[in-house]
């Protein structure tokens, strides 16, 4: 940032390289599509046309990007402290479940209290679950990768146990027909615990938007959290300490910064963000907890964080890109009558990630060399 | 401009479809099927649904599409988009489609929907296809019990995917069936996991089954989708018996080299028949919403084969394993279940 | 009850569960000992699993399938090496990209080649070892020993040999010394004339080979099936085993075995312990954390682990 004026040209170059890398990756994808005998123009037209060509598409994209922003920030934040938190999955499970529990238990609270309470519970649950690996790392030097992985599995078993415990009862119609409640989900959260859909807001503003679209206020929470993460990391003392520990723990310790304290805090903040996935999936979408709602979001967050270079803005953009590809991919699958599976999009995502990091590295090198010459 | 091009393209497609289908004067019915977790090739639940669609395609010349959803939100997106582009019948395989179909069915009242294992009783355009799995499980449980009794063994096993009501029903019926013929028999019971992966983890299935066989299980019944493929592997390795589920899986217990067969039987849950009938109703214009139960007594003839909604499989792979007396006993119990004399439990009492 | 759980089959089961974890974990050891973090193990296992089955079904020979899985593992290792050794890109990013790539490409190819997203293997490797005597014949002790250690897939024995060889290679040969020095003190190694890039390439590609082999064991030997995403997090557990084993072959094997014991135990506790099955499913993971906290403690990676080597620095 110091040398903005001097190296304007390079900053520009650094900004557009990821874009160029994405384009090259799409070209590679086009070749693959041609190799299997399909028309790449049609495929990309479908992908982008449906995903970002209209409001419904954008809504779907943002709905899918929202949890990825949370889990991406989870990974990014811990990374800034030198921690590899691959426990986003588990932290998300626990935080989200607790928020759901609050949502269907304290049903007589008004929305003004219940919504913040649910959000705080989600964050607190994630933070608590992440505190365990944080403390083990800080106090005993146990590697956070092992503990977070193990705790992912424990979290999924624990929440499944709790789902069965708080399982929704059969509806009246089911009882009348003598049918069991087959779906293993919890009771619904109270009306007052639900986040408004974007449709409700846009509709009141007389803006045309499909009523079924699932994008909800949680997207703005995610953006807010991204800004907050930026603020914490670069504008507060805590953030400075966390980054110092991440940059060089020995030097930080020497400079009077408590490494242990910052590791625990960084893990807890990171986990809290993961817990907030529940605001999108439960408070804004399903209104209940179900085991398979979230699977994989935590792990996708790793790719999003890294593609976004562990910067909040980068994470948001990467999450939206993944949202476009995920949603567009589902539609390509439909509109090619199943001939192009969604998995091709996953391959595309991987190629994009690889190209972006390689090009990034190449450009950095180029700039470094030029600087030396200058 | 763009729209015009689209219209032209659509017209060309429709025209070519009309020309290609000589049997029907109108354009063929378009049927979309969206799979459950596990997807096509699971040799079990999803494959059964896919088979029903294929039968319908052969008999009625329908146009079909099969999709596998990724994340949960894909279910709704898939259904809605199929409806939007004019699919006439859309089938969701598995109870996970309950919310999505309820929502989308209201948006597209002219489109016909069917859900397998889901309960949506009150929509005129949604047919819910339900199966009393405990009944079929009771019958195969009897076969397991009689086989163990005949061979002088004292233990049988059960491997489930996730510990959910649906699978508990399989387990409960099975246990009751075993106890009905062999009250002293010990039953080992295990579940593969706590996420949907538990229905697609043959590695886990095999190890679980091996542990049960090693602890004396003579027959294992699985209700675990693709995980069950591992149970079959374990059975062949230990040379013990296994009971398949949903589709007829008897052939999976056959060892070609030695000619031995360990697939004792399979609990048939005729999703294929149900899917076929739903499409047939749509083709013939008799489709109506509501609950359709495919039970032991619901017999359907397709081609020259007669199926029951749920039942047990006897074919060339297991005809030497299941004796005529066993079949006679099972048939007797079947009649008693149908008449209500035997009440099959749907919950495991622990 | 005790005998129902802790018997010879329990040991055999633990070994089988541990094999893929141990092999992939050993892959991690090679890679990280040379200074390259390999998060991509998960994807390499998955790709190996798919390749093994696909090639076996086309060639009819499971050994060819195993070989192909190893080769594909090496290929993915090469991609990882090019990205993070030659281009010096972030190693974790590259690994994550490989995982993403593997998830997509395996399902995509499976669907393209076989029209389904999961396939059954047509022939698999035979069990090698002493034929099991029938119960009642011969001594129970001998039978148990055979069940535990001499009645396995050939890949199990291969794994044991690989581990012994790896220990020798890493600790008793000049090559091993060089490899470790590249991961610990690359500057010093460089001045001593060790070709750092070459060493790291070899290590990362070895790591891919081992992960590919792990995958072939998973699909060919354990499942007899390829199922989408069938690696099921084993690559990450293998990483944990590597850290757990303090970046040594035998330590990694021990850690993998511990997970194996946990899994085998959990399977056998179902129906024996009268607690909800979800808590039994937690057993292997709780056991791992418990052992880690109580006995193992601090884990220190190789000093240059994860840091691309820059000649100019220093």
Strand segment count of chain B: 16
Q: Which stretches of chain B of 5+ consecutive residues score pLDDT under 50?
A: 17-25
Task: Estimate nothing, just give the exact number of structural domains of chain B.
Answer: 2
The total domain count of chain A is: 1
Order of helices and strands of chain A: HHHHHHHHHHHHHHHH
Name of the CATH superfamily of the largest domain in chain B: Response regulator
Strand content of chain A: under 5%
Output the CATH class name of the largest domain in chain B: Alpha Beta
Q: What is the general shape of chain B?
A: globular
Task: Summarize model confidence as the mean pLDDT of chain B.
Answer: 90
Give the helix proportion of chain B (percent range). Answer: 40-55%
Greatest chain-chain contact: A-C, 45 and 47 residues
Plain-language structure description:
The complex is a heterotrimer of chains A (374), B (350) and C (314). The two termini of chain A are 18 Å apart. Chain A has a single domain (55-319), classed as ABC transporter involved in vitamin B12 uptake, BtuC (Orthogonal Bundle). Chain A is an all-alpha fold and 374 residues long. The mean pLDDT of chain A is 90. In chain A, helix 2 packs across helix 15 (312-335), helix 5 packs antiparallel against helix 12 and helix 5 (111-140) packs antiparallel against helix 13. Chain A contains 16 helices and no strands. Chain A is globular and about 80 Å long. With 350 residues, chain B is of the alpha/beta class. In chain B, 42% of the residues lie in helices and 21% in strands. Chain B is built from ten helices and 16 strands. In chain B, the strands form four sheets. Chain B has a six-stranded parallel β-sheet, sandwiched between helices. In chain B, strands 7-6-8-9-12-16 form a six-stranded mixed β-sheet, with helices on both faces. A two-stranded antiparallel ribbon of chain B has the order 10-11. In chain B, helix 2 (45-60) packs parallel to helix 9 (271-284), helix 5 packs antiparallel against helix 10 and helix 7 (202-214) packs parallel to helix 8 (227-238). The longest helix of chain B has 19 residues, at 2-20. Chain C is mainly alpha-helical and 314 residues long. Chain C has a single domain (2-127, 139-296), classed as ABC transporter involved in vitamin B12 uptake, BtuC. The relative contact order of chain C is 0.21. Chains A and C meet through helix 6, helix 14 and helix 16 of A and helix 5, helix 11, helix 13 and helix 14 of C.
